[in-house]
Every structure is written in structure tokens, then in C-alpha cells.
Amino acid sequence: MQADTASRAARSGPSSVPWIWPRLRHRPAAAVWTAVLVAALVFLTTALPLELARYQDTALDMTLRQTSVTSRSVEASPPSGVGVGVVPGQTAQTPVGPSGGAAMQAAMATAAGQVEAQIGAPLRIDTSQVSWGIQAVQREGNEVGAPLSAPPGEGVGPAPDGIAPHLSLVWQPTGQLTMVAGRLPTEAAGADPNSLEVAVSQATARTMGWHVGSRLLAPEPFVYRGQEQLTVVGVFRDPSAAQSQLPYWAGTPLLGAPTLYELSNGGQTLHYWEAEALVAPGAVRALPQIAQPAPYWWFPLSPGSLNAGQVGPALDMLSSLTNGDRASTLLSTSDPVSSGLMVQSDLTGVLTQFNAQRDALEPVVTIGVAGTAGTAAAVLLMVFGLTTERRTAELALLRARGAGLRLLLRRLTVESAAATVPGGLVGIGAALLFLPSRVWQTALGYGLAVLLVATLAGPLRMLARHRSLRPARPDARNDLVRAKPSRRRTVAEVFLLVLTVAAVVALRSRGLAPAGGGLDPLTAVAPVLLGLTGALLLVRLYPLPLRLVARPVTRRSGAVGFLGLARAGRAGATGSLLPLLALLLALTTTVFGATVLSGVTARRVALTTQLVGADVRVDAVASGVPAGLATALERLPGVRAGTGVLTDPLAQLGTGQTVVPLGLVDPASYARVSASIGLGAFAPSLLTPPATGAGGTGGAGGTGGTAAVPVLASAGAAAEIGTAPTTITSLFGTMQIRLAGVLASTPFTPSGDFVIAAQTPALAAAHWPSSVAATPSAVLLTGPVQSSAVKALIAASGAQNQVDVLDRADAQASLDAQPLPSGAVSLYQAAALAATLLALLAVVLALLQAAPERAALLARLRTMGLRPRQGYTLILTETLPMLLLAAVAGSALGAASVPLLGSAVDLGPLVGSLDGTATVTHASPALHLLPVVLPAAVLLVLAVGVVLTEAAVIGRRQIGVQLRAGDEA
């Protein structure tokens, strides 16, 4: 009847009988599912460019916010060697009065305006935070600042290692200062002509012991008009944590708080304090007599003003400012402060590193996205194929009664658009609403393109099958077991196989993105091609396992199992091939993606272990960890194993040409730490020296017949030591050693070469004075110990300035929080999840397509005595072979893709790095059981749940309803 109505409509014209609404009312579920599917696919297509841009923009914003303000700013200064100019009408030797100070500030503001005028788009400067000033820093060898002394009765401040505090002078506008004591320095009439007024921060005053009225003496040439006395006239408030990130304070950090500097002298590390003090603007013109003045201007980037799409133009602008046309313009400018300006910026390095990391991540992310796109395409093809199969008889009758292809195309397109256009518009609207982004025009274009394909592909596919008027043979079978592939299909499959082999070979030989060549689309879709080839091969071989399973079933009593397998073999090729293709693509890409993600997690753990060497590590800054503190650390709650290590990073093997880190350890506790953290486990007995005397091994060149100390070494150090005893010279003395074993790594120095010896015999062999206690250079702790407890104990002991604490959990959190890698991992996870859900949707649609026929069959069989439990068995036997085979084959393909393709995938960019201290240069995913088995198991369980739900729903329906007259079989 449906076909008769359609044929009359086709003959009579478009206005005689309505076409669209009767068909939509006849199968409302099919229209709704089509709309939902199109909405999902269009949403994914539209959301992809939006989410890519959003995650990159967010990553860039987080990168810039995590970078110091000076590294994300443009800095201007005069060329090297050019000092402060002279205000018109004055000389360098003439004191500058208040009017001169105002002129200086005006000159600095004018120069700032000249630089701002040259900074163009896309760089946008936060004008409210532009900062400038003039700094005078005396440099003598490795020392920074001028050493101070004090008049009789005055204190100069702390002098660790016997070195007096050093001071530099700076002038900045005082608008951001809040005085807490005294006043700002001035150069007004009546001021003491023999004293230079300065102001310092609260932290500087507290650390140095200075107060308002403190007097300091500076040596030549740190003088001002012959004056050698500095007087503290004011103390201003310390900057808050937020203020310290502003250019005003970050550009001159010593103005806010002094710093303890290190000074290397004859192999010794000495320390001294360095501070800065603020002077009056009127004192600026005399700074050339004090030290080389250095004017500076800081132009910070406005937060959130730069997106990832503008990184390239921003680098071009910075290049022009630092070494281009704009740089030439700035050098040719002349102002009272300097003759020309130069621009430099660490922002160039930050953006270049961001660009490199983004380019490195792009190929890996593309693999995940390609897998989802392939699965989506398979699901869409499946829907078109199922629709074509369902309407074959109707369209064949219409063609036989004279309906033209153009008329059918027009009406089928309108019918398709009635379901796809609303769903597509909902998908596009949802993506644009929930994922606002700068690339919305591109995303809109992608979404409309997929919507157009979804609308036209179905009608074109149906008409392509019915372009000929020749009817199909009534006895022709198109099931998986009996269907014979056409020559064109065979040629297409061979071409696909060749393409897959070419993609795999190219991927293994050149990698995902050859150097300088960008991303190769062929290599990026290699996992998808692998899954597609596997699906076609599985369809070719599908009858064989089905026959093998059917043989034992046929010998059993009962017809349920045999009937289920027979129906599985009689399933249509279209309704089985395309769901199988979607399942295999989803499983292949999901297994490969899960392996990649588990590899990233494992590599991050290995990287943090390589950096720390324990769960918590306490390193001495200078002389060593106090012995009492080391013991207390090892007794903290949660510590499973702890040990102290004496280290010398520059020990010399043999003649001194080979330098290698030496660690002196307690064998028992160090072996427990090594085993607990998984770095170079060994037996403590290996480090136990043999008894001296008759059984001892005399060391050549030793004294008193002392046996050579046994050591464990890395492979490189072991090659230098050799099989014969040799000597090693360190901070602890010279001793003779022999090789007792080789380790791949060790906790005290997880990367590079090393030598380990037992502490007590080694110190004895090196003639270390027994009266001098050897304090450990590092304490290694393993177990669920909290770094907060470690830091609290260190603070309670008063040793917070003597040690540094490294926590592996903190390092892991730092890796996990890195903007670009974490965003790429999240995107990869979302792509794998979307592929899995699409594959499940394919299974559901395939089951729904066959549900009416299956319901009618069960109803008829129940009239002949089929029990409900047998109905469940029948449905499972019919549907499980394909699902089970797809799960096994998908997992196998995913597992095979790891050795085939994994060597070309670099996980290093996904892992990230820790400030350059530990970096994964290249890491390939490794095959693990859980990522291979888990996706298939989850998908299989969900699919079986859908099947059982369908069987339960069918079981509750009335047999009379299923057997009513006119119901389609």
C-alpha cells in the first residue's frame, strides 16, 4: 500500500498526494534517530575546530600567566655603553633640582610613548602597568653592588662569610609606594650637602637592621658630589604577592626585598647580601659619578590579549622590534634621556617554545581526531545503507512504474532534509553556544558541510542503487555467508590494502611529521586505514569462524542455537558490515589511544622519578643536612624507607680525566630505598668489603694492605673502572675501589653515570678524620610521606635556609598541569570517548533496524512453544558472533597498531618537561594488557546490555500485537 501511494504520487505530480509527512508519520522513530545522529555528528564536526582553538588559546593564556611578568614584557633600554643624557641647560656635574626631576620624569614618559608607538598588533600593551626607571649598579668582578661600611657606632648589616652587604641605587616613580616610616628622599634646598638620601623596603630594613636615620658609608667611586654617606630617610611597605608580579617591582626585585648572593672564590662558595635603595629624581643626573646608569622601560603584555592564532604575527612583530625596521626607527630617535633605544624581550622565547610544542603535539592529537572522524563516517554510511535496504522494494516499484530519477531525487532530498536539517542546526547551535571561540566561522563552515553531506548522501545512495530498471533476481541472497563481492569491491579493497601498507611504511620511516615537512595526512590516518582494512578482511573471513562454531551446535539437541547462528549468517551484508566497520575503527583507535595515554602516565612517573630519585628528597644547600634533622626525617609518619647519602658530583676516576658523581651510602637502608622507588635494586652484600688479612685483596698502590672498596657503578663508569682495582679522588680523599656490580640507575643521581660505595669503609679507606662527622648531602625518603610534614619539620629545626625539598607528587602535579600537554591529553581522551559512543550507537541502530523482524519471529516461535529464556538465547546467539568477533578483532588490531605505528609516535610533547631539568626527548607507547582489553570489554558489555534490553522489551509485548494483520516481517 505504501508503494502504491508513492507510485500514484510520482505519476500525478507533486500536488496530488503529500510525500513527506506520510512517510515521517509512518516511521517516526527512524526520523528521530536520524535527526539525533546528524545532530551528534554535526556537533562533533563543529566542536572540533572550536575546541582545538579554545584549548590552544587557554594553554597560551596559562603559559603567559605562569611566566614572570618580565618574560612576557617588552623591555627597552639605551644601547650598551650609553648612559643617561643631560637635561637641557644643565651639565652632568650640576645637581638637578625639583624642576630637573620633573623634566627627567617627562623625558622618560616621552621615551615610553615613542616605544609604545612602535609596538603594533597583535601585541597589546597594558598601558596602566608600564614602568620605567634608572638603575645604577656597580660591578666589580663577580660582585654586584657596592660593599658598604658604617660610621662608628652604626651597624652595616649581616655579613655572612665575612662579606659586608652590597647596595645598588635606583630611581622609579613613587606612585606605587606607601611609606610606613619617614619620608621619601628629596634633593631640596637645605638638605645635608654631605649625605645622599635613600629609602628602603620593610624587608630590606628588617634583614639589614636599618631604620630611619641609619647612616652608611660607600667606598669610591660610589660617591655623589664627593659625598660618601648614605642616610636612610624612609621605609616603604613591602609589595604584596600580587604586587610583586607587576613590572614596577618585578623589574627591580631587589627594591622589594634583598637577596643572598653566591660568590665563587677559589673553589669555595661565599655568600653576601645584595639590596637596592630608592633615590630622589633630583639625584639621577649625578648617577654617572656613582656607577653606569641604566635607564629601562617595561611594557607588559595585556593579559588575555593574545590568542594562539596570533603567535606567528606576534613573533614577526617582536622580530621587527628587536632586529628589524621598527628597531631601526627606535635607534634613530633622540631624546634627553638617551640617543636611541633598543628593544629586547624574553617573550620571543616563550612564544617560540609554545609554537614548537604545539607543532609537536599536533600530529598526536590528529591521530585521535582521525579515529573519531573515521568512526563517525562509518556510522553515517551505516545509516544510509540501512535506509537504502529498508526502502529497496518501494523505490524499485516506483522506478518500475515510471518515476524519474530527478523527481525521486528532489522528493527524497526534501524528505531527508526534514530530519537532518533540524538535527544539524541543533548540533551547530549547541556547539557555538557551549564552545564560543574565535574560529566560529570556520567551525560553522565545517558543520554546514557535514549537514549538506548528511542530507544529500542518503538520497544519492538510494538512487545510485536504482538507476537501472532491471529488477533483482527474486532468489538472490545478499547475506554475509552467500554474498559474492563484486569486482569493483575487490579492486577497492586491494587499493585500500596497498594504501594501508604505504601509510604504515611511511609512518615508520618518516614519522608522523617529517622535519620541516609538516603533518602528512596519509600517516595521520594510518590507524584508521589499519582498522578499515581489518574490517574488510574480517568480513571476508567471517563465514569461516561461523561455520566452525555451527558444527558443534548442530550436533546438540534443540534448534535454538542452530537457528540463531543461521540467522547470524543470513544477516544482510549492509546491516552487518558497516556496524562491524564502526566497531573495528572505534576499537582500533581507542585501544591505540588508551595505549598512548597510559604511556604518557607511565612516562610522567618515570620523569618525576628521574628528577627526584625518591618520593621526597631533601638536598643540602651548602655544608650538608644536619645529622639530627636527617634522623628525624627518616622517622616521619609514612616513610617506608629513608637514607642519607654523602655525595661528590665531581669525583675523579683513575688519572682524573673522567669525572663521575660519587655517593657514599649505608648499604642496607640505601638498598631498601632503591627497591622501593624502583631504581637500581641491589643486594647490600655487594657493597660489603671483604675481611682484610689473608683473605683480603690487596690494593695495588694501597697502604697497609687495605682492601679495595667494592663499588656499584653505571655502565659508563664501569667501563672506565674496568676489572682491575683503580683509584677515585673526591672531597673525602683518595681511595682504591674495585667493581662489584653494574646498575642501570640509582636514586641519588637517577640519570647519568655514578659510583656508589659503602660509607664507613670508604671514609676509612680515604683516611677521613674520625673526629669529623660527615653529614649527608641528601636525604632520600620513600612512601606516602607528606612534603608538608617534611617542610614543617625542617622549619621547626630552623634549617629552612640550609636545605631544598623536592617532592615527586608535586613534580607530577606540575607535569599534569602543564597547559598544552594537559589540553592535548584531554582532547585525545574526548576523541576516544566519542569514537566509543559512536560505535555503540552503530550497534544500537543496527539492532533497531532488525528489531521489528526479530520481534515478529519471536512472537511466531512463542506460539509454537518457545520459552522466554530460549528467546533470550536466540537473540544472543544471533547477535553475539558479530559483536564478539568485532571485539576480539578490534583489540587485536589495536594491539598490532602499537608495534606497527607506535615507534613513529613521540610521546615526549604529551609528557611535557619540568623547566628543562628533566625532559623526555623521545618516548614511544608500549603495549600493556589493560588498555587492549578494557575498551573491547566495556563496548561488548554495553552492546550485550542493549541486546538484553531489546529482548526484555519484546518479551513484554503481546503476541497478538506482533502477529496483527499487515505487520511487516
TrEMBL record:
This is ABC3 transporter permease C-terminal domain-containing protein. The keyword Membrane applies. The chain crosses the membrane at residues 30-50, 364-387, 408-434, 446-464, 490-509, 521-542, 577-600, 827-851, 872-893, 932-954. It is a multi-pass membrane protein. Belongs to the ABC-4 integral membrane protein family. The keyword Protein transport does not apply. GO terms for molecular function: transmembrane transporter activity. Residues 831-952 form the ABC3 transporter permease C-terminal domain. One of its GO terms (cellular component) is plasma membrane. It is found in: Cell membrane. Keywords: Cell membrane, Membrane, Transmembrane, Transmembrane helix.
